[in-house]
């Protein structure tokens, strides 16, 4: 039996990159109907060996789905598994679907659909039916009803048998900004009532509100594996399945350790910012000849000869340092709800960097690693830096930089453009490993006042 994975899409490249690749080995082909994407959705599908068919989207979801079925049948497939780009499955569940259909006892599978809302995966009848018909044997006359919004196909009577298999579809559309989700509901409501479709906003403001809800406590199951709120950490319910942050610290620590300049005198001082009890960088600075101080919001026990400051980077007194190391810390400053922070400050990261720049000796070095991608705040986890990065490093010269992204299962060094286009997601307010973003690694230098005067005199002379 030839089983195809079938998608309807329009500007869904980021979701497709995250959700499709790990399913390709367990299906016989990939088919997509594109409604008029202006991003690289079609190229992403084709790069995976898939077929793309065009049907300009006319706000007729059923018409789009029926065209998808026709394309799959015309391409010679025997069965179809239909997913949306913001949905995914475990590969072993797809193998189970194939086995059920190949056995021939059931022609149509009613698959449970589990939503990721807030901090947990759960069934919610208020959001979606518990299951939908999503996999079936083709060429049996199955088509969706001729209405614009419908999730239930028409079933030819007396021909088909159905079952609810022990598998699940995981839906992540609810991690989108609230304003985008609300617009989707407005579109569905207008189509169902025969009203004009509202104009699509040019931009959806990401308010992070999908993390502001309390964890689900209703009568529905929390998640099918009963692993609770830390599910993304163990990876079994990680929305990306194979793409996550695991391994990022090795890259960041290695970058900073390898670029610590040797102290020019025994009096040189270094500051390790937000180490969280990990002393690798402090000890590396000690080996390079520095007197080391570490600062963290939470108290930790320091190793010998490392001074420890416990407090808020925005308020503690900072003397002058020759070297400052900031490893994946600045993105948390000012975000309420993590690391014991009770008062938020939307510009806490910028203010903290200004304080660090002021505390850095002219000519001194600041080593910085941080999340990069499209500008976003994942409350209360972290910020991701795109254009905001330029505001962050004001007053410093970029001496060297590297960009990294986990494009598949492994970290790869990429261009700045590729890193800044990396989609970012924080799937839980507690588990960093379930997050995804690119990495920016920077060697920054505070301009020496004498060098600045010389440059000014040179420019003034040249203008004269």
Outline: elongated
Q: Helicity, in percent?
A: 25-40%
Number of structural domains: 2
Would you report the number of β strands?
A: 22
Strand content: 25-35%
CATH class of the largest domain: Alpha Beta
Describe the largest sheet.
Answer: 10 strands, mixed
End-to-end Cα distance: 81 Å
Describe the structure in your own words.
By secondary structure, this protein is of the alpha/beta class. The chain folds into 2 domains: 3-175 and 212-234, Spore Coat Polysaccharide Biosynthesis Protein SpsA, Chain A (Alpha-Beta Complex); 248-452, 3-Layer(aba) Sandwich (Rossmann fold). It is 25% helix and 25% strand. The chain has 12 helices and 22 strands. The strands form 4 sheets. Strands 1, 2, 3, 4, 5, 6, 7, 8, 11 and 12 form a 10-stranded mixed sheet that branches. An 8-stranded mixed sheet has the order 15-14-13-16-17-22-20-21. Strands 9-10 form a two-stranded antiparallel ribbon. A hairpin with a 3-residue loop joins strand 18 and strand 19. Helix 1 packs parallel to helix 2. The longest helix has 16 residues, at 178-193. The relative contact order is 0.09. The model is unreliable at 118-129, 207-242 and 458-464 (pLDDT under 50).
Question: Would you spell out the secondary-structure blueprint of this structure?
Answer:
Elements: E1 3-9, H1 13-19, E2 29-34, H2 41-47, E3 51-54, H3 61-74, E4 79-83, E5 87-88, H4 91-103, E6 108-117, E7 120-122, E8 131-137, E9 143-144, E10 153-154, E11 162-163, E12 169-171, H5 178-193, H6 231-234, H7 248-258, E13 269-273, H8 280-287, E14 291-296, E15 306-310, E16 321-327, H9 348-359, E17 360-372, E18 376-378, E19 382-384, H10 388-392, E20 396-406, E21 411-413, H11 416-420, E22 438-446, H12 449-463
Parallel strand pairs: 1-2, 1-4, 2-3, 6-11, 6-12, 13-14, 13-16, 14-15, 16-17
Antiparallel strand pairs: 4-8, 5-12, 6-7, 6-8, 9-10, 17-22, 18-19, 20-21, 20-22
Helix pairs in contact: 1-2
């Amino acid at each position: 039996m030839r089983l195809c994975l079938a998608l309807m899409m329009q500007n869904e490249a980021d979701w497709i990159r995250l959700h499709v690749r790990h399913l390709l080995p367990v299906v016989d082909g990939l088919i997509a109907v594109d409604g008029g994407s202006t991003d690289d959705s079609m190229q992403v599908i084709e790069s995976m060996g898939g077929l793309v068919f065009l049907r300009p989207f006319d706000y007729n979801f059923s018409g789009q789905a029926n065209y998808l079925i026709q394309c799959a049948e015309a391409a010679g497939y025997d069965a179809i598994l239909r997913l949306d780009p913001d949905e995914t499955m475990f590969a072993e569940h797809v193998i189970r679907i194939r086995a059920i259909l190949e056995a021939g006892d059931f022609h149509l599978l009613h698959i449970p659909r589990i939503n990721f809302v807030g901090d947990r995966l759960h069934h919610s009848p208020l959001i979606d039916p518990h299951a939908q018909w999503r996999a079936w044997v083709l060429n049996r006359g199955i088509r969706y009803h001729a209405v614009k919004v419908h999730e239930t196909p028409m079933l030819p009577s007396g021909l088909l048998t159905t079952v609810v298999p022990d598998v699940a579809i995981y839906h992540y559309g609810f991690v989108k900004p609230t304003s985008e989700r609300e617009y989707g509901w407005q579109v569905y409501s207008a189509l169902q009532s025969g009203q004009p479709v509202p104009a699509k906003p040019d931009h959806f403001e990401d308010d992070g509100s999908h993390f502001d809800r309390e964890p689900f406590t209703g009568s529905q199951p929390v998640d099918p594996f009963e692993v609770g709120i830390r599910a993304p950490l163990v990876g079994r319910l990680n929305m990306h399945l194979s793409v996550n942050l695991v391994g990022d610290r090795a890259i960041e620590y290695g970058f900073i350790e390898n670029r610590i300049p040797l102290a020019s005198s025994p009096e040189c001082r270094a500051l390790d910012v937000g180490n969280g009890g990990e002393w690798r960088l402090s000890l590396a600075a000690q080996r390079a000849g520095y007197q080391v101080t570490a600062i963290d919001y939470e108290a930790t026990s320091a190793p010998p000869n490392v001074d420890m400051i416990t407090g808020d980077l925005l308020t503690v007194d900072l003397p002058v340092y020759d070297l400052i190391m900031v490893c994946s810390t600045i993105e948390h400053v000012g975000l309420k709800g993590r690391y014991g922070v009770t008062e938020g400050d939307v510009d806490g990261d910028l203010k903290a960097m200004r304080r660090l720049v002021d505390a850095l000796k002219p000519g001194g070095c600041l080593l910085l690693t941080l999340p990069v991608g499209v500008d976003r705040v994942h409350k209360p986890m972290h910020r991701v830096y795109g254009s905001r990065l330029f505001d962050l490093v004001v007053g410093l010269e970029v001496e060297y930089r590297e960009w990294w992204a986990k494009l598949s299962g492994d970290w790869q060094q990429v261009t700045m453009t590729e890193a800044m286009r990396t989609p970012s997601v924080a799937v839980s307010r507690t588990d960093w490993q379930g997050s995804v973003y690119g990495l920016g690694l920077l060697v920054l230098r505070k301009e020496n006042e004498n060098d600045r005067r010389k440059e000014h005199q040179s420019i003034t002379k040249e203008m004269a």
